[in-house]
Design a protein that fits this description.
With 313 residues, this protein is α/β, with parallel strands linked by helices. The protein is built from 12 helices and 11 strands. Strand 7, helix 9 and strand 8 form a beta-alpha-beta unit. The chain is elongated, with a radius of gyration of 28 Å.
């Protein structure tokens, strides 16, 4: 009896019939039945009693299935990991983008890969940072670009910092608070505020630092991306917040003004987060090189504007 026999028996026991087991295994029902019959001859016992389309395992088959569960699970896990590695070898990568990296890096990375005549294809997942980090830790996606708490203890991932930033308050120049930052942050909460659903950390900050529950505000709007958020600020006069780098081009164009959080600066850092146990494939290295190159451009701009802001204050 070899490992295929064990997997076949476990699958039939689990699925309850040869038909469903053969579909799961990706082989014909006739092939599966023939394999089991040969095994029954070699062992000298009956493994399954066929009754009206169902296959009831005998005590021997049940014993083999129970004893081989861990082996079967490991084999299935190996199959999944092998498929993921094969996708990477073919150039197909699963990449997670946090809100700021989606806005600042996604198009730039794709453009750079095209300019390099890269054969890499990306399956992009855009979502909240905490969810994406969990997925790269479990191996569901290959790399995440987004914020990361370096105090987290997870030996499955490595986080490489791409740039340092800060959270800023942002509004259009015509807003009554645009001329001078208020001394007391509470004044901000008297005005209509827009927030992003995919960046829940801001709501945590409001609750922990200022005792504000954004869910109870009557003049609050939620949106799903930074481009939509910027439009709400410019066209409808909302106040908002986010990484300085996200709003800097609009600030440079004179369409927005921003300033640091009044009572104490709030740092924001972007990272490239990868799984330590991922199989190294050329496509992944190519993507990382492109991401880091584009991140350096953003980092230089952020550093220049942070230095200017600190000098002005």
């Amino acid at each position: 009896m070899d490992i295929r026999d064990i997997i076949y028996i476990h699958s039939i026991c689990h699925e309850g019939s040869f038909k469903r087991a053969s579909k799961l295994l990706g082989i014909s029902q006739a092939t599966l039945a023939s394999r089991v019959e040969l095994l029954e001859v070699r062992l000298g016992v009956t493994l399954f009693n066929r009754q009206r389309g169902r296959s009831k395992p005998t005590s021997v088959a049940q014993f083999i299935s129970e004893q081989s569960k861990e082996l079967h699970d490991n084999a299935f896990s190996l199959l999944q990991e092998t498929r993921q590695v094969a996708e990477g070898v073919r150039g197909h990568l699963r990449i997670g983008f946090g809100p700021a990296s989606t806005h600042l890096l996604l198009r730039r990375i794709i453009t750079r890969l095209r300019e390099n005549n890269s054969k890499v294809t990306l399956q992009c997942k855009i979502g909240s940072p905490s969810s994406l980090v969990n997925q790269v830790s479990s191996g569901e996606i290959d790399v995440v670009l987004g914020p990361y708490d370096p105090n987290l203890s997870d030996d499955r991932v490595t986080a490489r910092r791409l740039w340092n930033d800060e959270i800023v308050i942002v509004m259009r120049p015509e807003h009554p608070l645009a001329a001078k930052p208020p001394r007391h942050p509470e004044i901000l909460f008297r005005h209509p505020i827009a927030l992003t659903r995919i960046e829940p950390r801001y709501q945590v900050l409001l609750r922990e630092r200022y005792g504000q529950n954004a869910e109870t505000w009557s003049r609050r709007v939620n949106c799903s991306s930074f481009p939509k958020l910027i439009q709400l600020i410019i066209k409808d006069g909302f106040i908002s917040a986010g990484p300085r780098s996200v709003f800097q081009s609009e600030v440079d164009a004179g369409r927005l003004v921003c300033y640091s959080v009044p009572d104490a600066p709030v740092p924001h850092n972007e990272y490239l987060i990868s799984n330590n146990y991922s199989y190294p494939v050329p496509a992944l290295a190519e993507f990382v090189d492109a991401a880091q190159a584009e991140a350096r451009v953003v980092a230089e701009s952020v550093e220049k504007n942070l230095s200017w802001s600190q000098a002005a204050s």
